[in-house]
Write a structure and sequence with these properties.
The protein has helices at about 60-65, 75, 85-95, 100, 105-115, 120-140, 140-155, 210-225, 230, 265-285, 290-295, 305, 315-320, 330-355, and strands spanning about 5-10, 15-20, 25-30, 35-40, 170, 175-185, 195-200, 205-210, 235-240, 245-250, 260-265, 360-364. The protein is an alpha+beta fold.
Length: about 375
């Protein structure tokens, strides 16, 4: 049976189960025996031939949904256990239930940040719903709600999500980030090949690529050693021509995208020493070889834009079309970032040495 959009509902008679698909991919199912809905564990990846299954009647589906025929995907999401919801599902439900508050871009981004950083996400989602229900009942204004969200961020995350900082993510963020971790080369035949490099993922950190461009590249470029064996052995391609002559295309220099850039721990220690001196220079107004470099605008946006709240798409587009050539990030923010970055790099080197990892890998 056709539902909204490209969703369909069919039956699996042998198991007495109702299946909900989108473009033929299985997403949700209902088991009358247990009287509850579930998200398919491999939702969106397992395809069925919908035409091979009998349709569900409108009454059957309405009964399974507690008397309501689904008109949109959120009608189904409401019947799942909160622990089965994805963050995007939670945000859709919150937008639908609290449009007055969720239409405020600052509130939206704050709630999204809490959910993204939560260890037990659905617990945070339930706390946020409780907060917004209370705000509606008491007719609280948006400023009051933001203060409550700030308090909630302390309770859930242990920190103030509104505090401005240049971010460092513990672990691996697969979006537009650079990854830093200890590694060990186990086969120098090609250090560009994934299986030839052992990674200490447990110690990994991620830094957004614009922040790497703005605050770290002066140090990374200075201490990148193209003659280091691990860097010299990065082979991008290897082929034999019609005359039987083998050709090898090596990766040279610091590579920005999806390529390991290797550093010795000695190089990292010198880099961090320079960073500490730069922190002191920024704090006192003294110039060193890096302070002028840090004022040059690099990357696609400033720190202020990346973490800005309340900017529309049009404002962001206008800003990028008239991007400044000089960075105006406050010195205190940069110093704070370096302090946290140094701490994590020093920890990674200690942990790496203990576990036999002798190089640092930096990859975007």
């Amino acid at each position: 049976m056709k539902l909204f959009g490209d969703f369909e509902a069919v039956k699996f008679p042998e198991e007495n189960v109702i299946l909900i698909t989108q473009r033929g991919y299985l997403y949700y199912y209902y088991q009358p025996r247990y009287e509850h809905w579930e998200r398919h564990k491999n939702a969106g990846n397992d395809m069925i031939t919908v035409g091979n299954y009998p349709d569900v009647s409108k009454k059957e589906l309405s009964d399974a949904m507690g008397g309501k025929f689904p008109e949109k995907v959120t009608d189904i999401l409401r019947l799942l256990y909160p622990s089965q919801l994805y963050i995007v599902d939670m945000m859709h439900l919150l937008e639908e239930d609290y449009p007055g508050y969720m239409s405020d871009n600052v509130i939206y981004r704050a709630i999204h940040s809490i959910l993204l950083e939560s260890v037990v996400c659905y617990k945070s989602y339930l706390r946020i719903r409780e907060l917004l229900d209370n705000a509606l009942e008491l007719q609280q204004d948006k400023d009051h709600v933001l203060n409550r969200i700030k308090d909630l961020s302390f309770e859930i995350l242990g920190r103030d999500i509104f505090r401005r900082e240049i971010g460092i993510v513990d672990g691996h963020d697969s979006s537009s980030y650079f990854w830093f971790m200890p590694v060990r080369v186990i086969d120098y035949s090609n250090t560009y090949a994934v299986d030839n490099v052992a990674e200490m993922r447990s110690a990994e950190i991620s830094v957004e690529e614009d922040d790497v461009a703005q605050y770290l590249t002066p140090f990374l470029y200075k201490y990148f050693d193209a003659d280091l064996k691990a860097n010299k052995c990065r082979i991008h391609d290897r082929w034999t021509d019609d005359d039987g002559i083998e050709h090898i295309d090596y990766i040279t220099g610091f590579e920005w995208y999806l390529t390991e850039n290797f550093y010795t721990y000695d190089a990292i220690e010198h880099m961090l020493s320079d960073m500490k001196d730069t922190m002191e220079a920024l704090a006192t107004g003294r110039e060193n070889e890096y302070t002028a470099e840090l004022k040059i605008k690099r990357g696609t946006a400033t720190h202020q834009l990346i973490y800005a709240n309340g900017l529309t798409d049009e404002q962001i587009k206008e800003y990028n079309n008239n991007r400044p050539t000089e960075d105006d990030t406050e010195a205190d923010l940069v110093i704070d970032f370096y302090r946290r970055f140094i701490y994590r790099m020093e920890y990674m080197m200690k942990a790496g040495k203990e576990n036999g990892f002798d190089l640092m890998c930096i990859m975007g």
